[in-house]
Automatic annotation (TrEMBL):
Region called Disordered, residue ranges: 102-141
Originating species: Amblyomma cajennense (Cayenne tick)
Comp. bias intervals (Polar residues): 129-139
Protein name: Putative sister chromatid cohesion protein
Compositionally biased tracts (Basic and acidic residues): 114-126
Residue ranges of coiled coil: none
Keywords: Signal
Upper classification of the organism: Eukaryota, Metazoa, Ecdysozoa, Arthropoda, Chelicerata
Signal peptide: 1-32
InterPro entries found in the cross-reference section: ARM-like (IPR011989), WAPL (IPR039874), WAPL_C (IPR022771), WAPL_dom (IPR012502)
């Protein structure tokens, strides 16, 4: 009903308290669901908000005027603030979480590589230790490390996708409205949209390479990137 429909989005968006409820599904409800289900909840909730504001100026204004609370994961948990503020804070937290996951994955792989080298290369003047772990043991250790690294990489991807969805939502919300763009700018780092643009471009490149979304989605994303770059 809300997908690519200005009328449907307007009708749904006018329901009392709806936007506030969806924002809470993003900012507070995840703490009450299992960890493995949080990503799905975030993507579905952000996707619904994107549908509501993409083609409906009325909903964009409603979102900008909505008061909500900070994310349960942030230092602003439960603090009342404008939706733009809460979403930008959440975006920043997810960017940091993605970077941390990437660094942890790199550290795991680097550590394993050093262990393998140390076990295969004896020190000068020394022979290989007689009690060197068997190849099967080293292989199991490598497999465990790779699994941990893949888990970290998966978390990095999840955080990055959430960042892209938030950027897409905010870009849709301020399109064709300089006043809303300036209100959003008040809550961005250094008053610039560059972090939002970078998150969207990374995701845009990813979906172009993988083909996980159709041409319509990629065109919409490119349009929002241009909106943020030109604002």
């Amino acid at each position: 009903m809300t997908h690519d429909s200005a009328l449907g989005s307007a009708i749904v968006g006018r329901q009392p308290g709806l936007l506030s409820a969806i924002l809470l599904c993003i900012l507070q409800v995840p703490k009450a669901v299992p960890l493995e289900q949080r990503f799905d909840l975030l993507v579905l909730s952000l996707g619904l908000l994107i549908n509501l504001v993409e083609h409906c100026a009325e909903n964009r204004q409603l979102l900008a005027d909505t008061q909500t609370v900070g994310s349960f994961e942030s230092v602003c948990d439960q603090m009342e603030m404008p939706a733009f503020n809460a979403l930008m804070d959440f975006f920043t937290d997810k960017i940091e979480a993605a970077q941390q996951s990437e660094e942890q994955a790199d550290e795991l792989l680097s550590s394993q590589e050093q262990k393998v080298k140390a076990s295969l290369e004896p020190r000068d003047g020394e022979s290989l230790p007689a009690n060197q772990p068997p190849v099967s043991s080293q292989s199991d250790d490598l497999e465990e490390t790779l699994m941990k690294a893949l888990q970290k990489a998966g978390k990095h991807m999840e955080h990055s996708i959430v960042c892209a969805y938030i950027a897409l939502l905010l870009g849709c919300a301020v399109q064709n409205n300089k006043e809303l763009a300036e209100r959003l700018r008040e809550h961005t780092p250094d008053g610039k949209f560059l972090p939002l643009v970078e998150a969207l471009k990374k995701f845009h490149n990813f979906i172009n390479l993988t083909g996980v979304l159709g041409n319509t989605a990629t065109k919409s994303m490119q349009r929002v990137i241009e909106v943020l770059e030109d604002s």
